Amino acid sequence: MSEHGKTQQSRPTADLRRNLRSPLIVLKVKLEEGTRAFFGYAKNISRSGMFITSVNPREPGSRFPVEIPLPDPICQKVICSCEVVWRRQYDKKSSHEPGMGLKFLDMPEELAEAIDSWIRTQAD
Asked: Where are the alpha helices (H) located in the chain, listed in sequence order?
């Protein structure tokens, strides 16, 4: 609440790094490993990778396919390979969520460009 008693709503903004990133909190991601499937939630995404929350993040260097349903206006499902580049273990004292940073290995260029365009609309 603000000092005037009104709730201030702030829209998440894109994070400026090497590649623009945008919050994507409700995205459910499917990771395949043999016949087992793991569903996680992406907290941000860029053309080159994403962060997935998980209490059991995989080891850096691990590679696996990922299935990502992209939001409006892209409305496509991406299936590509990724690699874990970093992980953060659960720590009850930490204010950061546990999870892992993934790098896309074979994201189709047209979808990478569509993600970039979508992120730019989120940054406005």
From this structure: 109-123
Could you state, in order of their start, the residue ranges of all structural domains in the chain?
Answer: 22-123
In tens, the pLDDT along 17-34 reads: 455 555 554 455 666 666
Residue type, 17: R
Question: What are the pLDDT digits (tens) for 30-57?
Answer: 666 665 666 677 888 889 999 988 888 8
pLDDT tier at 7, thresholds 50, 70, 90? very low
Per the CATH hierarchy, to which homologous superfamily does domain 22-123 belong? predicted glycosyltransferase like domains (2.40.10.220)
Cβ-contact 38, 31 below 8 angstroms: yes
Please enumerate in sequence order all residues whose Cβ is within 8 A of that of 49, keeping only pairs 6 or more positions apart, or say none: 82, 85, 101, 102, 103, 104
Q: How far apart are CA 110 and CA 70, in angstroms?
A: 13
* Strand, helix or coil for residue 35: coil
Structure tokens at 20: 């623009």
